[in-house]
Amino acid sequence: MTPQPDPQLGAAVSAVDRAHVFHSWSAQELIAPLAVAGAEGSYFWDYEGNRYLDFTSGLVFTNIGYQHPKVVAAIQEQAATMTTFAPAFAVEARSEAARLIAERTPGDLDKIFFTNGGAEAVENATRMARLHTGRPKVLSAYRSYHGGTAAAINLTGDPRRWPSDNGSAGVVRFWAPFLYRSPFHSGNEAEECERALAHLEDTIVFEGPSTIAGIILETVPGTAGIMTPPPGYLAGVRELCDRYGIVFILDEVMAGFGRTGAWFAVDHFEGVVPDLLTFAKGVNSGYVPLGGVAISGAVAETFAKRPYPGGLTYSGHPLACAAAVATINVMADEGVVEHAARIGADVIGPGLRDLAERHPSVGEVRGLGMFWALELVRDRETREPLVPYNATGDANAPMAAFAAAAKANGLWPFVNMNRTHVVPPCNISEPEAKAGLAALDSALDAADAHVA
How far apart, in whole angstroms, are the C-alpha atoms of residue 257 and residue 224? Predict the structure, then answer.
């Protein structure tokens, strides 16, 4: 699709947006959202005719890109047949989506509870854990993001939690492993794994195992920085949960459905199976809102003859489920998961490491599949971040300059704190990936200007 400039319409769209739309996570009078005219594949464009390669996948959800014709057709067909129906009934699209998801989840996670998105999936997973165990507390990591609803935001570790932290949600936080900025003063991955597990067990013991319902972790933390856990860590958490009767919850809202080069990120860690697994985003490439919880046999049995006290009007919405069925089939038929693994290993990973060699502002490159982060620093030796933690305004100027340079080069970057994440659609072509890396190369000059 070729962008057709229409600045007058773009100005009208922006004017109405500013008059009536209340945007997430924003000071409303300090933002100027880009008016988007269209999108296709790995690109979107504005009403001025400017075209951007999307290295954000929306909010890391367009895993098969924008406007995939097979998914669009499936939504249209479902709308013509049955646009909606209450969740208490068996509906073909809902049943088939659940079957396809259950086929791909690890172990016996064979029951699927559908939600409207990831935050609601986390809300319900933690509720299930508390009801299953009869315990009040859930442990979560400081470097994490689990959603914006009441329980999910309190489980979140990043600063978006602070204004809504009520201090009484039964949440206890701990430090998960992150070797580059290790809270345990570790020198290698083995030490980081051992010390992180010891810290977690100490937290369990001092909090009281009989009070802890669950431990929730992003399998590979997303917004917090894309830190793949060291070998043995998730297996160690699984063992601790088994030892103390704690429900192990893995949050795969961002990392699932091909993002890491596997159907689920947990597939990279042999033998690790959580009790509950949350998903959303990539399950249908975000075309219609959908999320859910994959539930183990043991947790599902708790509610076999005891009603589960939770539900949503749009749980398993037929349009969303039809989009999920089509998306999963497209990913299987077109080898999207395998493609993400190959492009990540052969193109993006080596390309980012090459950028790190030439740009002093790049402190670390980490990731896998279509899930990468560049840690930007002022000083490689001290690892001082390019901007302070949770920086705003003038303090955030270096990252703002980097983002502006990327956009000027036709690349829309994912920027969070002192990092840029490289999270394009999982089916991005090799030439597109290389074009994005070239744009990043140029944009990093703006970050280098702030290196000490």
Answer: 19
pLDDT in tens, 218-247: 999 999 999 999 999 999 999 999 999 999
Residue range 110-159, pLDDT digits in tens? 999 999 999 999 999 999 999 999 999 999 999 999 988 888 888 888 88
Cβ(440)–Cβ(420) under 8 Å? yes
Query: SS3 string of the chain?
Result: CCCCCCHHHHHHHHHHHHHHCCCCCCCHHHCCCCCEEEEEECEEEECCCCEEEECCHHHHCCCCCECCHHHHHHHHHHHHHCCCCCCCCCCHHHHHHHHHHHHHCCCCCCEEEEECCHHHHHHHHHHHHHHHHCCCEEEEECCCCCCCCHHHHHHCCCHHHHHHCCCCCCEEEECCCCHHHCCCCCCCHHHHHHHHHHHHHHHHHHHCHHHEEEEEEECCCCCCCCCCCCCCHHHHHHHHHHHHCCEEEEECCCCCCCCCCCCCHHHHCCCCCCCEEEECHHHCCCCCCCEEEEECHHHHHHCCCCCCCCCCCCCCCHHHHHHHHHHHHHHHHCCHHHHHHHHHHHHHHHHHHHHHHHCCCEEEEEEECCEEEEEEEEECCCCEECCCCCCCHHHHHHHHHHHHHHHHCCEECEEECCEEEECCCCCCCHHHHHHHHHHHHHHHHHHHCCCC
> What is the number of residues in the chain?
452
Q: pTM for the full model?
A: 0.96
Tokens describing residue 324: 């999920």
